[in-house]
Amino acid sequence: MELMMMTMREIKEYLKTNQTIIIPIGATEEHSDALPLGTDTITAEALAKRLGEVTDRVVGPTINVGNCHSITYGFTGTISISPTTLISYLKDYITSLHYHGFRNFFFVNGHGGNIAPLRCAFDELANTLTNSKFLVSSWWLMEELKELYDNAGHAGRGEVSMILYLNKSLVKSKFLTEEKRPMPKYYVTNDLARKYITVTGIINDTQEGSFELGEKLFNASIEAMAKLLRHLEES
Amino acid sequence: MELMMMTMREIKEYLKTNQTIIIPIGATEEHSDALPLGTDTITAEALAKRLGEVTDRVVGPTINVGNCHSITYGFTGTISISPTTLISYLKDYITSLHYHGFRNFFFVNGHGGNIAPLRCAFDELANTLTNSKFLVSSWWLMEELKELYDNAGHAGRGEVSMILYLNKSLVKSKFLTEEKRPMPKYYVTNDLARKYITVTGIINDTQEGSFELGEKLFNASIEAMAKLLRHLEES
Amino acid sequence: MELMMMTMREIKEYLKTNQTIIIPIGATEEHSDALPLGTDTITAEALAKRLGEVTDRVVGPTINVGNCHSITYGFTGTISISPTTLISYLKDYITSLHYHGFRNFFFVNGHGGNIAPLRCAFDELANTLTNSKFLVSSWWLMEELKELYDNAGHAGRGEVSMILYLNKSLVKSKFLTEEKRPMPKYYVTNDLARKYITVTGIINDTQEGSFELGEKLFNASIEAMAKLLRHLEES
Amino acid sequence: MELMMMTMREIKEYLKTNQTIIIPIGATEEHSDALPLGTDTITAEALAKRLGEVTDRVVGPTINVGNCHSITYGFTGTISISPTTLISYLKDYITSLHYHGFRNFFFVNGHGGNIAPLRCAFDELANTLTNSKFLVSSWWLMEELKELYDNAGHAGRGEVSMILYLNKSLVKSKFLTEEKRPMPKYYVTNDLARKYITVTGIINDTQEGSFELGEKLFNASIEAMAKLLRHLEES
Amino acid sequence: MELMMMTMREIKEYLKTNQTIIIPIGATEEHSDALPLGTDTITAEALAKRLGEVTDRVVGPTINVGNCHSITYGFTGTISISPTTLISYLKDYITSLHYHGFRNFFFVNGHGGNIAPLRCAFDELANTLTNSKFLVSSWWLMEELKELYDNAGHAGRGEVSMILYLNKSLVKSKFLTEEKRPMPKYYVTNDLARKYITVTGIINDTQEGSFELGEKLFNASIEAMAKLLRHLEES
Amino acid sequence: MELMMMTMREIKEYLKTNQTIIIPIGATEEHSDALPLGTDTITAEALAKRLGEVTDRVVGPTINVGNCHSITYGFTGTISISPTTLISYLKDYITSLHYHGFRNFFFVNGHGGNIAPLRCAFDELANTLTNSKFLVSSWWLMEELKELYDNAGHAGRGEVSMILYLNKSLVKSKFLTEEKRPMPKYYVTNDLARKYITVTGIINDTQEGSFELGEKLFNASIEAMAKLLRHLEES
Description:
The structure is a homohexamer.
Chain A: H1 8-17, E1 20-25, H2 39-55, E2 58-59, H3 83-100, E3 104-109, H4 115-125, E4 133-138, H5 146-149, H6 157-167, E5 178-179, E6 187-188, H7 193-196, E7 205-206, H8 211-234
Parallel strand pairs in A: 1-2, 1-3, 3-4
Antiparallel strand pairs in A: 5-7
């Protein structure tokens, strides 16, 4: 059930028995020459919709563009909303839904750069809204996927596999490559991104993914997220 | 061609010969009990994608949620980004694309409440960016559709027809109704919205639309927009 | 009756029977070499004061500087408040008056660039204030003046006539000229303003105005505005 | 010479030999039942215009509404722009003029609550603009007027005299009164304003002013300000 | 009693009988080659702690960095928080304490550039908080120290003496010098700071201070502040 | 070496050979009835100063108050700076230092709620500053302390031990207690904090700490941080 496809009346009906909403949030960001710019959004949206189906919960409008202000900003095609703006945006988005009666906000996140702004937004809403819970699930960070994901990097094996599974035609196979190098434990200004982080747009990984791995990652994510959603609602 | 489905390399290639991007912007907003909350976004996105096809231009990520801070904010399901936040959001979105080389920004708009924030964003960018043009086309306001559209209102005949054409299953026919009343020439605070503007969520119109009218509106919009896009690039 | 000329006690008295305030908002902006930089403010203020007289309503302090962030910003003498700042300014201004009991806010606007920020401010106040109405009347856009105004442009026949009528000495006749060229349907960054919009500061018009036309425009404006003000209060 | 009454060409001419602008900034604020709400603005504007005449310098558009967020906010008719908004407003105002070539900014201030926001604005511009000077002259704080002004308070003898001199009809003599009480050295939240500061709107003074005192205060202010302006330009 | 050294339970206990908090606010700012960058903070903190001891009042966490956006920003080591950010910071700081029950806010200020932002913050809180008082005491501006302080300037005799008294080892005596020149009555942009204000980082003073003068200044400050604190609580 | 204790000249000297600064950032936040409100700041500051000593690097002014907008905001004594304000504050702080020549920013963090705002600030600076690196080390999250720290919670064994080691008198032993309960994986609004997270102010832990454990934690932190600092400078 997607909120954008439902009517006002249907949402009113839904809210009588359930106050949960699933919100996909991704990014529009370079993912090497082989993967589409929308990789994070495509993945988050697919996960959120499937999760909505298996749990019978409403899915809110996808947040297509996220915070990519560092590392990838200088790579062609990346669109970024600054953290401060994204915090305001999330606050407005959540506040509207809270006004209508939603209380459990389950974010299906596809992009690392969104985690800090999401946390900041929740903190700023903590004194303003009432009786609400916020949860962020980032598939590549889930305990249950640890072995499968195996520390894959940005635009690496994990994401290649996900996109192969979700929409194979979007993977430009002849440009699959790798960039393996030790990552620093610090952040850098963007003029240093190519020197310290990535030239190809891949962060410390190969791109040896597969449809099968994608399928496994996707299904394991859904299973883990469905469990988290029950945790959100029932604990 | 959708930017989110393309790779960094493909965008670089595109930019060598063309600096235009088409950007769909809609809203998630009550549209009576008969039309989906995503009516404005669904319409804007469909128009933008078709326009991208017929003109061979890149389409950016859809802005799914817009400014609905007045009138419909109090109707279940409406999600609104405040004008000030939306202005910041648009500035960040456009500035990223400008950084990569885009210069012609063609917005396909599905929602009246976005027009003022779009104008404000352009004004704030006018001193900051260079060599760029911004155009907003709102299908229901286009001269070429005047006769066809015939002053239809929010959630009225025009939008019913568009959604019947684009995705018939989203129209809940048994709730089609009408609300006809003289509209004031002023804005009101939201506590007065039902008294002065709308109870059903329809603004001064019937919902007597049709697939055929939708088809005509859609095609006429595409034709007019394609002309505008040439105007943007060539004049 | 001007609020700035009245005492606290007089305003208290006024509010007992009426909650309307008329607010003039203009701009300080180049108007070619022949018209004064304050053209928009002078016109808006004169209209507001006359309207206050004929309707016996209080007139608030004039907003002398508006949003001129695009097109004219680069022309000597233009002062501009950015849209985001102007929105905040309008919200503070209106909120103070609302706090004291005003409920009907009638803006007499002299400048196109203010329309979007005004709308944004009203939207942001729609959930915050209560029981209030906001109306913007821009004389050159009024249906009743359509024939008289005849699509005159910025610093063109219409404004020349208005200033001739209001304060003839401010029109530097020997610099009256014209700049006629097809206007684009898009906005441009300011580095393109002279190329696409105007070199003289006139936007697509001659400056063949007259005292008589000014008088007619002024009087027709007042008549139409007085009607609108009744509409604001009574409907 | 008022900038709003001058043309673009006249400002260009002026800037060839002088980069000074005089800017009146006042307030719209209760001044007891006897003095008009615009007392601070009326005074600042009159001083600025006269100063402009005697020094042959351009006077910018009056800032009619200032920061009255504390003490008087709760008194009918007071309109206040919050400090943060006023800082942004001043930055936009000054930045536009700097862009055109002005370098010496002489503020004629009529209201105490503007002093802190003015200073904050200058500080925020100090790293952004170049080669510029900012001066604030508040007539009632000038060393040269110390004896004449004799510690008069808000809406007290000094302001009564100024308005009697500038526009006698605006003083409602039958409501002239006094409120004398020891003032605290601290600020209070507005719910405590009547308890700690003022009930009548007068701050610790009588209202025993005179036209003659007003004339002296006005002339002494002009003399002192003209000296300050030379200091601004020449030192 | 320092709030940071106390437990939640101890603060609850304190609040049962007293709602006053003393807050030290300073700056990290060049103070010539002879005095430490933390001169203003060191002084404010020492005064606040002693004041807390003699009055048995709680001292809040020190605000180590203040507004130094003008004059000294370009001198090595100065750290500055912009006025607008500092206003937000102060509002958050005070609002938290108000939420817990504090009502009397006594700021011990060590830096001139903080005075305007403090006033702005109080003004913005005046309508939001209730039943509260705010007082700023800047030692070098106190009437009681006028004779002792004798118009000493930034990094001059007064501050040298204070630091000699508080922590002699921080004064690098061999770099003590002087810079005496007439000060302008205006503010300048930072590119003009060395030309109009200071080359050494001293503002119009010698550095002929002494431990004895420091002791006197410190003790006189404490005495005057203790009196002010009683005024805050009892009047 | 503390920047606040050094002179402008000493910082200039330092910058000739080193561009690193260590910045302690903590919080003023309830830590149960047994630990002081400044626990996070006291720890971060002590670690930063020791780190500065062992590495011979400059330590910047301590950021005493952090982001505690969720969970602990409602517990007496907590002072919180909102994430958005903290982001602005950090940007101003870092930008000043960058202006003077610092390029390696090593944050010693004592509080979990600061991690998201720090990341957001770095992201917003990534396009603005150049040639810089930012590193955040939060002692309780360091791999090297994993075994020692053993998943201790807020105000639990780990922090008790740290404060026993750093300043035993600040631990109010008779109020040492425990609160052990399963923690949710979601955030909650503050009205739910006591129901879902903590009643005592301890988050899922006992308070069975010791001086010895504190000493080990402290020393292990310093060792790990010194290694990280070399990584920051040399890799």
